[in-house]
Amino acid sequence: MDELTLVARGQLEQARQSPHGRAARLLLHLNMLRQTLIALTQGSVLGEHDAPHAASVLVLSGSVQISTESGGMVSLAAGELAEVPQERHDLMALADSVVLLTTVTGV
Which candidate, 66, 71, 54, 70, places its Cα nearest to that of 93? Predict the structure, then answer.
């Protein structure tokens, strides 16, 4: 089992113990580039927030839904990668899930 899988399992366990049903761990912070592992239990939501300059989300396990302020919606399952919308959005776990969020915070 690789290190990322072990870290993901650990984060999901922390999320299951959290009253908010989520846990996050910064894996990489290199200048403007950040990669964060986020675990969410089924039904947990990362509330509406602004988008960074550029970002993608890769679902490592489970399934999630990204909903935008303008009514757009995309559902992603394990192994799927998507660009994070460039507008206010939220992220909801449709099942216990772990995602890898990659962001560029400036140019």
Answer: 66
